[in-house]
Amino acid sequence: MTSERVLINRVFRKLPSRQGGNLRVGIGDDAAVVRPKPGLEWVVTTDAFLENIHFLLRVHPPQAVGYKALARASSDLAAMGARPLYFLLNLALPARCTGKWFDGFLDGMARAARTFGLVLAGGDTTSSPLAAINLTVIGEAGRGQAVLRSGARPGNLLCVSGRLGEAELGLQLLLRRGSKTRKWKKPLQKHLYPQPRLELGEWLARSGRATAMIDTSDGLSTDLSHLCEASGVGAKLWAPKIPRVVVPDDAPKIGLDSLRLALDGGDDYELLFTVSKRFARHLPRALRRVPLTVIGEITRDKRILLVDDAGRMKKLPAQGWDPFRK
Amino acid sequence: MTSERVLINRVFRKLPSRQGGNLRVGIGDDAAVVRPKPGLEWVVTTDAFLENIHFLLRVHPPQAVGYKALARASSDLAAMGARPLYFLLNLALPARCTGKWFDGFLDGMARAARTFGLVLAGGDTTSSPLAAINLTVIGEAGRGQAVLRSGARPGNLLCVSGRLGEAELGLQLLLRRGSKTRKWKKPLQKHLYPQPRLELGEWLARSGRATAMIDTSDGLSTDLSHLCEASGVGAKLWAPKIPRVVVPDDAPKIGLDSLRLALDGGDDYELLFTVSKRFARHLPRALRRVPLTVIGEITRDKRILLVDDAGRMKKLPAQGWDPFRK
């Protein structure tokens, strides 16, 4: 059996806590000490990634667990338009995850940290019957530039990045077909290695053009309901416009409807944001090859309605991920 | 079964996230947004408090679980000499903890937040077979004033606050005698409702007199080894000087030796710090009725030695809490 010290040293090696600059004290002390840059605001978020709730040891490779834990947490920064700086890692691990599994996990997390520009600043480790990864991620944004959920106004247009439902399709294929899923690489990659839209978020925040923003972590229907509730508005969602995953013909089709996946599938980590009608005309079709699509309109009427090809409307219930419902 | 939204609303009511001042965005968005005060540094720490590892649902009242989770995390700020500002709460709860238990838990946590001066700034909730509370606590300290583990120098004197081993005695009595423990109220209180030494920590940091500091969360023998390792020094610990718990005569005595409890018992959350010999002469005997005691000396020789009444020395192994050893 390993000791806490040995585990921490392995974290140190794979996730160097480069002290210096504004990080005065990194891992190894009781707490991290950071000198904030003058004129900027701090954006702080925390996220749990738990065995049997968010991932399965027998299904998900350790690299994906490490990568995705940090990607999910960083997506909350993208949703505010903040630039990632530091993260704190709180690990609770069973003995079976302290050997080779742990190396794979750290490799995946190190890759995510490099990709997102995050430096490990602190953390804690303990033992636990089930693996639990808790992350705190800290970013910065210009004064007053962070984009909130609460700024959507009637008449604003609703936009989304990427293609929705891909991660959920990847999960469903993985659960039903296991490694045979390899031929459907794209949805699988999106499920295992999601890409938080950090550049897009920062661009929208800096330009001041997004009036409200949230990331699609629980699924469009649920995340849109959060944004509308925070803003005190409703929305009309144009079903034909929603950029949605293509379900492969030879995929096991039971219950895998592409509109349903796009509306209620979680884990996409795309950005859902609102802009004024005037700005929408200047919205590029894509930013760094990530498509941007106008999918609806914000309304004074607080209901959330789905409008089909024929213009028929029906209420859209929030049926994305709720950990306490299932 | 409750929904995530309902749980979050209950958190809101008991732990108001008072927006305003430097907290621009509190709970309810993707992340918290804070405006740091100019000239100050930020001190950030994260801590896990897990069912069956750190607490037992059948033994520990929900109020104590909520209180202690925040007290433990805040103790890391005390150990740096930082002033608490904000916290983020990440909750993973089984269905059996979402009813009345949750109200008690929030009451305890709200009491701790008021006592320590902490405001809830964000968080997340999810379901889980075992209760897990993850906290991120943010504080501030003057530029360069945070006290690190790494500053102890040979010749410095080693000091400790309070009385050691009390929390461990409280736990042992609770496990062996359950509610009959009430007559030993003091150790029980210390185990259930520890008091992080925030005022003492801040005073030592502001005065610039502590050369190194750590809190006694794992037990004196282990925490002293951390401090010495970070500082590249050793220590002589004077056994007769260690302020230790009194084991009640009629307590079940099996294995409850007061020196052993003081050396290896965890969860006391006292401060262990080093000062120059010159300053030690001016160290008050107590600060706000918390006794301060000189218990040893820092040495160039990197061993940690325990010196008994007769001046005999023996090596002191780190035998406090290590979650991966047991």
What's the CATH C level of the largest domain in chain A?
Alpha Beta
The radius of gyration over CA of chain A amounts to 20 Å
Sheet with the most strands of chain A?
Answer: 8 strands, mixed
Output the number of helix runs of chain A: 9
Low-confidence stretches of chain A: none
How large is the share of residues in beta strands of chain A? Answer: 25-35%
* H/E element order of chain A: HEEEHEHEEEHHHEHEHEHEEEE
Mean pLDDT rating of chain A: 92
- Most extensive interface, residues per chain? A-B, 71 and 72 residues
- Shape type of chain A: globular
CATH architecture of the largest domain in chain A: Alpha-Beta Complex
Question: CA-to-CA gap between the ends of chain A?
Answer: 36 Å
Query: How many domains, in number, for the residues of chain A?
Result: 2
The helix content of chain A is 25-40%
In the CATH hierarchy, the third-tier topology of the largest domain in chain A is known as Phosphoribosyl-aminoimidazole Synthetase, Chain A, domain 2
Quaternary state reads homodimer
Query: Quick one: CATH superfamily of the largest domain in chain A?
Result: PurM-like C-terminal domain
Q: Would you count the extended β strands of chain A for me?
A: 14
